[in-house]
Amino acid sequence: MDSYLVSEQLHEHTHDEEGNKMFGFIVFLLSESVIFLSFFAGYILYKTTTPNWLPIGVSGLEVKEPAINTVVLVASSFVIYLAERALQSHKLMQYRLYLFTTMAMGTYFLVGQGIEWSNLTFGFTSGVFGGTFYLLTGFHGLHVLTGILLQTIILVRSFIPGNFDSGHFGVNATSLFWHFVDVIWIILFVLIYLWQ
């Protein structure tokens, strides 16, 4: 009888391993949010208190190309969502196509950011604005690159037979990370490009 009770208690205390992993990943994203929020607060503080905010000879930033890059990056959130849905429906080829498209859109964004950087007339050491501009956009760009690398991993793993039999944590976490990166960029775009 005692062994029966112990067996019953063991069954009652099973853990939701995928749920625990996702909880841990959300805590990680919240910690990343704190870093970005501190950067945003610093940017706002410096912008509102620094005389001669823009470097000498700079009247503002070009908005058109960054706006196009923003549309592409934000649209990629919808595409990775479609990839998740395709995987849930066991449509592996559609999943791979949507995921590859998301990766291509993220790469387009990074290339666009690189082109923008190469055409700027100021550098990282060009006053407070130059330092904060490159810090914010560069740190975000590092997150975009990380997201593309994560997507590459889950795309390659989709070719391993039975890879998704134990769940979709990697796909769900990567998708959540990508949405996070997109939301952060929207805030950055408003702060840096629209609020000039």
TrEMBL record:
It is found in: Cell membrane. The chain crosses the membrane at residues 23-46, 66-83, 95-111, 117-137, 144-164, 176-195. It comes from the Bacteria. It is a multi-pass membrane protein. Pfam families: COX3 (PF00510). The keyword Transmembrane helix applies. Its main location: membrane. Residues 1-196 form the Heme-copper oxidase subunit III family profile domain. InterPro entries: Cyt_c/ubiquinol_Oxase_su3, Cyt_c_oxidase-like_su3, Cyt_c_oxidase_su3-like_sf, Cyt_c_oxidase_su3_a-hlx. The keyword Membrane applies. Keywords: Cell membrane, Membrane, Transmembrane, Transmembrane helix. Belongs to the cytochrome c oxidase subunit 3 family. This is Heme-copper oxidase subunit III. The lineage of its organism: Bacteria, Bacillati, Cyanobacteriota, Cyanophyceae, Nostocales.
